[in-house]
Amino acid sequence: MEAQRTLIQRAEPRTTVQVTFPDGTILEGPIGTPLEVFVLAAEEQAEVPRGTLVVAATVDGMLRELTMPVTRDITAIPITTDTGDGGRIYRRSLAFLLTVAVAELHGNIQVLIDYALPSGAFFCKVRGRDPFTPDELEAIKARMREIVAAGDPITRHEISLDEAIEMFRACGDDDKVRLLEFRHKNYLTIYKLRGQVDYFYGYMVPNTGYLKAFNVLPEEDGFVLQYPRRETPNEIRPYVRSPQLTEVFRRTEEWLSLLGIEDIGNLNQAIRDGRSRELVLVNEALHEQHIAQIASEIARRHHDGLRLVLIAGPSSSGKTTFSKRLAIQLMAHGLRPYTLEMDRYFVERHLTPRDEHGEYDFEALEAVDLPLFNEQLLALTTTRPVRIPHYNFMTGKREFEPGEVRLSPDHVLIVEGIHGLNPGLVPSLPTERTYRIYVSALTQLNIDRHNRVPTTDLRLIRRIVRDAAHRGYTAMDTLSRWESVRRGEKRNIFPYQENANVMFNSALLYELAVLRPMAEPLLLQIEPRQAHYIEARRLLSILGWLHTMDAELVPDNSLLREFIGQSILRDYAPGIR
User: Fold this and answer.
1) How do the domains of the chain map onto residue ranges?
2) Within 10 A of 153 (CB to CB), how many other CB atoms are there?
3) What is the architecture of the domain spanning 244-564?
4) Considering the entire predicted model, what is its pTM?
């Protein structure tokens, strides 16, 4: 039976509105009542998972803030912090809370929200002074708690673009000034909290009382702001350091500094000033330099018995092109690379594990015939002959290639697959014979000091462009699969990334400028009220900040060519010569 409740009794015709929730609850109130009032009143009956927090809602297929006044009858679906949109709103609001607390205690100190860490934290640092001491961080955390307890409103305002530029220039926010130089709209939406004003490219919670879960901890050269993860939306997990990932971001920061690019505003200026070719050539040279360094380390260790290179990384990280460029560098060292695909070793279909939906789970470690895989790797790395299997996806049966493969002592076996960093993959091989590489697109080119471009978004945009060009998929198709892809990454890749001997950042600082004209038409095909429309608009808003760059400038061996096409390495397969 459909549940019905009345928030406020209807007084006169057309003076009240109704809000309908997914479970059939219908609430009624005066025209102009904030959406938050309806959501809070319906929360006990609405479809809200236990332990989550409602921070927004979709209204007739559009994402809306809880401060939105309801002026007509609507259907509202609560958005909680265990969803992608809800988590982003919470983190964005928490970042604003941090900057306000710092401003109140330390004046006009610039805080940079640099990048996200896998344990659920932003790495942050300050400009113009030494890092905050532990005592200063405790005071900042205490002030944030005070502001949360006060439940201060976070208010939204629309001002002219000229007014916004002058305001940020007066505050010394040069990052926002250079960003807004390239904005085509003549207005900007800003947020205010306790007299502090900032711009954020997304929605906020209504007030600080929503932001109870966080922590602030010291970290080398800066500090971390912890936030709840989607999997545990009502708690803060213990902080786990990621030294290798941190080192990758430091290397990337050095690259950006070398190129004089700090944020998207800088990139736009460089493109406008005719520096596109220089940016491409230097960034590609830095990639090649790092690949060459990795190859040199492998060659050095090859003399000590290293025979197997395992490469892993999340979707659309450029693993395939990286593997081929690494193989070429190894050949330059006199080694003979031989690549082997892990999906050759799938167990037969009737033995394949199934996921929680009853579908075959080819991403599970148990989907690999580990005994056969280890037996053949051991044989190949000790120059014994094997017959390489082939998995027939049509029949679900294993077949074997004709003839035998025997590697020489000069060979290096390269295996690319999602389980490459999992210690359970090759337990039988001695550690000194293996070398593990983690590849991911770890962008550090943010919109400005307080607005990040998540690394996941860069990979998603890459995949949308590649899927359309090479697989005939629409952006809707790719977005529909993305959540499942992400679940597999969180289960099979990210927990093991610190097991790598080295990490390679495949992100290119200029690539979003190249991808924009390719991705935008695909995302614009998703219309209002269609599934993933909100996500498409969010990605379009990121791309909208960028000047475009001509794809003809991208070298034919670039990792970016794996996604935009015309890669000279596409059909190159390192093997026995």
Assistant:
1) 16-80, 86-241, 244-564
2) 15
3) 3-Layer(aba) Sandwich (3.40)
4) 0.92
